[in-house]
Structure formats: C-alpha cells, structure tokens
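Below is a concrete protein record.
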Amino acid sequence: MSRLKKLAGDTVLYGMSSIVGRMLNYFLVPLYTTYLSAAEYGVVTELYAYVAFFMVLFTFGMETTFFRFVSQDKSSAKSIFNQITSLVLVIDTALALLLCALATPIMNYLEFPGKEGYVYALAAILFLDGVSAIPFAKLRIEGKAKKFAMTKMINILINMSLNIVLLVGINAILEGKFMPEQAAWVNSWYSPAVGPAIVVFSNLVASAANWIMLGSAFRSFKFQWNKEVINPIVRYGYPLLFMGVAGTTNEMFSRLMLKKILPEGFYEGFSNQEILGIFGACYKLAIFMNLAIQAYKYAAEPFFFNNSGDKNSPALIGKVTHIFIAFGAVAYVGIVANLDIIAIFTLRQAEYKLALDAVPVLLMANLLLGVYYNLSMWYKLTDRTYVGTYLAVGGAILTILLNLMLIPSYGYMGSAYVTFIVYLLMTVASYILGQKYYPIPYQMVRGMLYLVLAGLLGHFCFQLKLDNFYFLKGIQLLIFLIFAGMVFILERSTLRKNRRA
C-alpha cells in the first residue's frame, strides 16, 4: 500500500471516531436548543470555552512531543511513554488541585456564585482527559487506528446517551408524559442551573469511561522521572504549550468576551448571556468543517513524523496539502449551500437562528485553520516549534485587540470576521517562513483559486433568496456540482499519480 493510501485509510478510520462520532454528538445541538434556553446554553458555551483553554495546559503539548521523540528513537518508545505520562500526571494533578482551590473566585468572576460544583467537575474532566491524551497518542503512533476509533466512539455514545436520557427524561416528567407522580418532586429541585449541570455530568462520566477502555495502556505504565530525558522533552514541548494557549485564544476568545464587552441591549430583546448561547449554537454548525480537519490531523501528524526522514517528504507534504485544500473547498460550498436545511434540523428554537449569518465566515475561517495545520508541519519537523509559538501568540494578540475593537460595533459578526482575518494572516505568515527554512513545493496558484472561488460561491449561495424553495435548492445544487466537477477535472491527473505514489 502506498504512503498516501495509508494516510487516506487512517484518515477514514480516525474519521469514524471524529466525523461519525462527533456527528452523533452534534445531534446534541438540536437537543440543547430544544430543552435549554438561550441563557442556559450560554452557560454551557462559556464554561466549555474555558475548558478549551485549560485543556491545552493539561496536555502541555505532549502529544506532538511524544510523536517527535518516538520517531527519533523507536527502541525507547516504552520509556518515553512512561516519562511523558509521568510528567503529564504531575502537571495535571497540580492544575486540578489549583482549580478546585480557586473554585469560589472563579465562579464569582463568571457571575455564577455558589456554583463551585461546576469547577470541581470540570477539573476532574480536564484531569481525566489530559492524562488520557498520551495513551491515545500511543495508539496513533503505533497505527492502531481501529482501537483509537472504537474508544473515541464509545466515549461519545456514553456522553450523548446520558444527555438524551437525562434532559428528555426530566422534561418528560415535568410535562407529565413520564412518571407523572414524580413531577412535583422534580419540579421542587429543577432550575435553569440543572440543564448545564447535566451536560457537565454526562461529560464527566464519559471521560471516566476512557480510563477503563485505555486500561491496558495504564496497566503497563510505570512512573519514571529521569531529568536527562524529561528536560529535552520539556524544552521541545513548552513552545507547543504556548502555541496551544494562543491558538485556543484565537478560537475561543470571541465567545469568552462576547458577554463581557458587547453593549447590553445591542440586540433588542436579548441579554448578553442569551446572545452568547445563540452565537455558541451557530458556531457549532462550523463543526462540519472541524470534523474533517480533526480526522485528517489525527492521521497526518504521526504520518508526517514517521516519514520525516524521507528525502521526498517536502513533496509529499505539498501533495497532501493541495488535496486537502481541494476537498475542503468543495466541502465548504456544499455545506454553505445547505445551511438553511441544516438549521431547520439543528436550531430548534427560532431565536437560535439569529446568528446564522456568521456561519459561512466561521466555516471559511476553519478551512484556513486546516490549511495552517498543514503548513505548520515545517517547524515541527525542523524542531523550530518556537516559530509556531510566535505565530500563535501574534495571532492571539491580534484576536484580542480586534475583538475589543469590533464586538462593541458589530456584535457576533465582529467576532466571526476576527476569526477569519487572524487565521488568514497566520496561514500566510507560516507559508512565508516555511518556504525560507523548509521549502515545500505547494501548488499555490491553484490552491488559492479554489479557496477564493469557494468563498465567492458560498457567499452567493447563502445570500440567494427565492420564493420557490425547490428552485432555490436546484440553483444551489447546480453551483455546487459545477464547482465540484471543475475541481475533479483539474485534479484527476494528480489523483491518478498519487494512486501510484
């Protein structure tokens, strides 16, 4: 099997856990938008935006670090696994205890006084997921994509099932449709705070299940702490930590600050907490692009590290990046052309559709982020991870400044445009620097053509309004098919060559 076929096969397997699994998890969005008010969903959005920040701290950049050190010395893979897992275990224990100690001031800052239980539960989730990250990375470097996919899928099914059973069940009792004799009792303790608590509790149980499913990896683990091994691991990993924090700022800062800096009453009839929930729900629609990127990233990172010693590695990265752009552009047009249908099945209450116009911008921003992931391989393969830190920190600073400038004037659309602008600039900067230190033969002109055309066609499809729904869908389908056909014709010869690669 060729290397590109191996990458494609692994991407499909990882996609089973990422795309199929998260698609199942994605169906929680209509559940939340049915049973949670916009304000309640705003609480979930805000809490999990902070979780994304802390998850970077809890993993400490050790997944990529594990790939790098094992690819350099496969004979010491077991020792490296033990050393890195020991490091993560110490870091995560300290961070979890610190969060619990600061639970009260954290909840006061978030304007949820007396809800320290959220912090305790989320600290436990972060600890469990942070330590589990290294066994998952071990499965990836060993090529055990099936086990990886199965474990992730079961995790998502547990989380989704608990959400459905608890949210639907409690509301059925309150409405007298199920166990009506318990309605008075449930009504005595049920409040708007319970909905977000159910989301967090379901996540906690699913994260705990990961440890059971990864039992073999944990059973073989032995605590090891050798400074001669740990020190170079930390030196390689800490720039990735800062890069991850800055990258999460780029993605999450808009959601964190929307409630804080949006002028109250900016959207008539909605509080800032409700707008945060509405924007968070619509942001979830960008998941269709994120899923493909995540599945690809799971497979591509260990793949490129394992092939880093090949003299043809730069050409391989160039080919894979171009294929990614081509398929991503086609997917973008297809998703945007059908956003109205997606919204019907996903955003169950009309108020959630208020921020739908931000979704095409967020989808394109996430496609650019996927391109950036491809371009970022040059500094990971050349051990210049500090460059990624500079790029991410620069992007984070720009994200903060632009959000502070644009949110008060443009609301959530300002946040969406900032996300797009920052990812575009980071992509361009990474390309320029990469060509200087690790030249890769990208097909720049054609790749840019695909992205620009996809953006223009997607915008046209989204803005097109016709009274006849079927005629509208016919035009949008025709535009998609013409664009997809053009890409296929242009890439047909490339795909044929890659089958023989």
